[in-house]
Structures are given as structure tokens and as C-alpha cells.
Amino acid sequence: MPVSGVVIKCRPEYVTDLSETLPRPGEVEIHGILPDGRLIAVIEADSVEGEVQVVSRLLETEGVIDVQLAYHNFEDVCESADGD
After folding, report:
1. Cα–Cα dist 56/79, whole Å
2. Which of helix, strand or coil describes residue 67?
3. pLDDT bracket for residue 77 (50, 70, 90)
4. 2-74: which CATH number, 3.30.70.560, 3.30.70.920, 3.40.630.30, 2.60.120.10?
5. What is the helix (H) or strand (E) element at residue 52, kind and residue range?
6. pTM
7. What CA–CA distances, in Å, run from 10 to 29, 31, 84?
């Protein structure tokens, strides 16, 4: 499962609204607002393609100017058939 830390650059008049409307459980989490109005977020998806779709939707959101990748990691979620 890919997990990415991103910085979302927003138009100043949209920052507060976007910090409340962009979060989607299991997909986009907002972790803070920088003094210049950029949002610090984490994106999760089942695949890299899924992450790209999330970023594309963010970029199509009114008030969002850019989404910059700050960190990317692949987390393996493995469970054995017997639950170990």
C-alpha cells in the first residue's frame, strides 16, 4: 500500500474550507496548515494508480493550486491465512 506525504498549495481564501472538506477517511488526511496557508496531508491508496487518481482529484478541486510530493513509502500489509 503506497503512502505519501504531500503539501497542498491552496488559494488563501480557500485554505480553511479545504482543510475541512478534503479529508476522506483512508484516502486523504490533513495534518496541519503551514503559516503560508499550505496544507500538510497524507494520501493512502491500494495502489500507485489509486494514489495518482487521488492527486488528480485534488488538483481538480476548486482552490487547490498544486500538490507537491514530500515523502513516499510502500507499506506491505501482509497477514497469513491463519491470522499470525
Report:
1. 31
2. strand
3. low
4. 3.30.70.920
5. helix 48-59
6. 0.84
7. 16, 15, 44
